[in-house]
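My current task is to audit a protein record that another person submitted. What it holds is a sequence and that sequence's fold in token form. Thanks in advance; the entry in question is below.
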Amino acid sequence: MNGVNDIVSAKNANQRQMVIVLFDGANALGVAGPGNVFARANQLMPGSYDVVYAGLNSQPVQAECGLQITGLTPLAEINHPIDTIIVSGGSEEGLFTAGSDGKLVLWLQQRRKTTRRIGSVCTGAFVLAASGLADDRPIVSHWASCDLLATLFPRVRVVPEALYINDGDIFSSAGVAAGIDLALALVEDD
């Protein structure tokens, strides 16, 4: 116990480990919006969050808008405890690929046991539903996708009129902008 280092250690001990999962076709705003909320929280309360942007591998992903996102951590290399996982939304093709990818689905299922909360932004709800994490739970997605989500995953209780839903350990937002509102609510809960 010698002062400055003790404060840094205390902050790091309380730091929440966040993982934002991306895939080819991810919506850049759905990634950047929540990421910026956690970054701002860190400015106001330094060391509150450690945000990791992750993908199936370390290869860059091309966002739905054409933006290349690099510097991703492969999911398989995340060995530390995670507080919160957020699955980004994105293009229909990207979501189909991500939701049918056995590695991502298995990773989410395995992490559920040790992660405080797992959620999605916008159409990322399809990945949560594909993994079974949203079975018998209320969930929301982009308004234009709610009917399809309910049709493809009848065990999920789709609530199309919600802006976001925080159902304890499972959460979701209606759209990419609502992902910012959801991230703000998560910070408030913390």
